[in-house]
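Dear colleague,

Thank you for sharing your sequence with our group. We've completed the structure prediction you requested, and as agreed, I am returning the results in plain text so they can be pasted directly into your records. Please verify that the sequence below matches your submission; if there's any discrepancy, let me know and we will rerun it promptly.
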Amino acid sequence: MSPHRQKNRSLVIRIINMVNGMQIVIGEQRKLYVGAIFSLLVLIVMIYLRLPVGAYIGVVIASTVVLVAETVNTAIEELCDKVQPDYDPMIKKVKDTAAAAVGIALIGAAAVGGLIVFGFIL
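Please find the predicted structure tokens below.
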């Protein structure tokens, strides 16, 4: 097989893996599904209120960061549970740190939302 063909096949495999992962995330992780629906509802309200494009950009970026953090947190938790099914203080620390990343993303998203609402009120 030529190197070019291998490279293309590798890309196809990566896309298939990505789609499989997204199906797992959407199908098994209710928090992510709810987060995606909530983000969509926020965007619909923003369209109704006719907010400026910058507001949409902020919400899309903030929502994406939260969903990515949730996805990475889930992957880390799953791996930790597989590697060490019993309680382990180091595994707890890893899981708590991953959960903190989600919390930081949520705080950032709330700040973006607050700034948009504040700007809309003024």
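Summary note from our side: The chain has one domain: 32-121.

Kind regards,
the structure core
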